[in-house]
Structure formats: structure tokens, C-alpha cells
Amino acid sequence: MYCGGFAFFLFWNMHIMLVIQ
């Protein structure tokens, strides 16, 4: 569960960076 949450956090971070660009 923790690993899944960490992967989701990384995915969300990448999504936000793409949106900001």
C-alpha cells in the first residue's frame, strides 16, 4: 500500500509539472 501511494505521488507530480508547463 505504501509503495502504491508513493508511485501515485510520483505520477501526480509528473502530471502537475506537465500541466504547469
Automatic annotation (TrEMBL):
It comes from the Eukaryota. This is Uncharacterized protein. It comes from Arundo donax (Giant reed).
